[in-house]
Amino acid sequence: MKTPLHTLLVAGLLVLGLSASAQSKLNVSTNSFTQGSGGEFSVFNSITKYLAKGDAASLSSWFADTLDVTVISSTRNCSRRQAQEILRTFFAANTPRSFQVTHKASEANKKYLIGLLSAGGELFQVTIYATSTGGDTYKIQELNISRQTAY
Fold first, then answer.
1. Reduced to 3 states, what is the DSSP secondary structure of residue 126?
2. Are the C-beta atoms of 124 and 117 separated by less than 8 Å?
3. Domain ranges of the chain
4. CATH architecture type of domain 4-147
5. Which of 136, 132, 137, 113 has the alpha carbon at shortest distance from 50?
6. H helical segments located in 2-121
7. For residues 147 and 16, which has the higher predicted lDDT (pLDDT)?
8. DSSP character for 72?
């Protein structure tokens, strides 16, 4: 039986442009994972740690050479260095307190993560799309940070 969370995740993946046939091949999980966990989603261990700390410099090491970054309602396709500066500015204005993974999914050579960032007294939804650059190495292609209207 598919849960409402599963439905929400699939709808979110549709927004990201994932085809219906690709959705049927998804490995979807709504369980959070911890820093020490390994496995299929271990690529996100460092990324989630850097988000929780507001460490834009370390987070940028996971960026592709160019990526799409959306913060609140401003979207840019930018270089790794530009994306790092955008996030540094965001974290300076919104000091992170915690980050919790709410959804994760994968398909061949692609990983998706949705989580909640508590920062600056507000709650933000963070969506990350990463693709494989070969082997177990992944780079962030898209990063979206939007305000949550309700908890």
1. strand
2. yes
3. 4-147
4. Roll (3.10)
5. 113
6. 4-15, 20-24, 44-53, 56-60, 80-93
7. 147
8. T
Per-position DSSP letters for 41-63, written without gaps between them: GTTHHHHHHHHHHT-HHHHHTTE
Q: Tens digit of pLDDT for each residue in 65-105?
A: 999 999 998 999 999 999 999 999 999 999 999 999 999 99
Q: 151 is written with which tokens?
A: 């908890």
Distance CA 11, CA 105 (A): 12
Torsion sign (Cα): 18, 132, 68, 53: positive
Q: What is the pTM of this model?
A: 0.72
**Least confident window among 16-25, 83-92, 99-108, 141-150:** 16-25
Strands ordered across the beta sheet of 74-79: 27-29, 96-107, 110-119, 122-134, 137-147, 63-71, 74-79
Any idea what the Cα angle at residue 144 is, between residues 34 and 105, rounded to 5°? 45
CA distances from 35 to 43, 46, 63 (A): 10, 7, 19
Q: Tokens 């929400």 — which residue?
A: 8
pLDDT of residue 151: 54
